Amino acid sequence: MQISEADQRMIKKRSIHQLRTLVIAQCLLLLVASLFCGIFFGLNAGLSALAGGITCLIPTCLFVAHLLLKMQLKNQLNVFGIFFSEAGKIMLTLIMMALMIKYARDVLVFPAFVFGIIVVLKAYLLALLKA
User: Is 117 exposed, middle or buried (0-12, 13-18, 19+ CB in 10 A)?
Assistant: First the structure.
């Protein structure tokens, strides 16, 4: 069964919208989480939540940029390319977390750091509910 060209354009447009919605949801939730931690638990907690979220947000933004570029250039995504990009995203996230913990250990508020990570990772749920 073949998908018509009009359906392909509609799917592509919807996919682009959903990817953008995901990144926006992650940014907004990270901002709210960082402000929450900063107001109620102090500046270091707010910055720690921000740092934790950024360790997940930056790799996600790079992954989304890669997907959008592939969609624009080739109009077709390769399953193996997506798999390896996702693996790279996970590796970059882990490396950034390790570097953050290693070099900011003295000022890092670990529960807030983890909270920032969780908030960004759970933004997928918000984006799915909106879609």
Answer: buried
